[in-house]
Amino acid sequence: MERDPELTWLRERVMNVVGHELRTPASTIRGLSDALAGTTDPSRTAELVGALQRQAHRLEQLVDEVLTAAGVMTALPVGAPSAVAVEGVVGEAWTAVGGEPGRLVLHVAGVKVAARPPSVRGIFDAVLRNAVNLGDGSATVDSCRDDGMIAVGVDSPGPPLPDEDIRFAVEPFWRGERAVTSTPGLGLGLAVARALAEHEGGTLTVEALAGGGLRTTIGLPAA
Amino acid sequence: MKETRIRVVVADDEPDVVLLLRVQLEMLEDFEVVGAAATGLAAVDVIRDARPDAVIMDLLMPGMNGFEAIGVIQEEFPDVAIVAYTGVAGDYVRMEMQRLGVALVLKSGSPDGLARALREAVTRRQPS
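ok -> structure tokens follow
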């Protein structure tokens, strides 16, 4: 039977991402605990315990990412949309994802979108987490209004990204070349953000940022 | 201490994996970790300096990845045995390693399996 190329591609992505991102900490934890059982050297013990703690934390973060994605995909926020001030949500999200104070530049004073607050927060959590983890750690947020929609742009400078990474950035389980090798994650963040934006009647698109990095544009109904 | 210890460079961008491999190999006595690198490019430099018998090469690393580094090492240091070390290996990775004549060990495997692959790879590189 001929395989659906799209499904085959998704299967390979899932296998690669899950295999690398989950197996590495799981296998490392097992190996570290075996090594710990076999050592009596106090300094080596401390090194191994530190490594165990880091790997356990990493595994926990990955499980959280899966659960967040599964939660959003299966139970999108309900309730009536309300007027949400973009500046406040972005500021809160920046702090939540570990962004450094002073490295977020906002040009969205007074801008409000009509959406469910948990959706807006979820969108900016994912987009800004990418900026912090995969960009240079800074972000600039601006907006423009067009035909009843607000387009919020998030610029996250960083190294130039391959065309393929730009094209598939919002696909679930897609991890960019740089992400695969530098930051733990399963490639679900932008896919979740796009699902939330679409749930609110909006859009989420990405493009290469001039000079390197990513520009993410979130379109949401204006309040 | 044996004189015939196998001198190994570990290339992996995950510092905890490097620590683990160092500890596991030290426990086996016939190995000595003589260097470590977090990128393929750095691995080539470390190999140039340390002249090891073998390198354990993670395949997914920033900058020059393991696939590219293997090509460079085979070209520049044909006497250095290479063991690819990866979390997951699909058909492409398996076929590519087979084509390059490089042993492949999964990170989920045992230290004994890795040690065996290293010994065999070194033996193949240094026929008596």
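Chain B has five helices and five strands.
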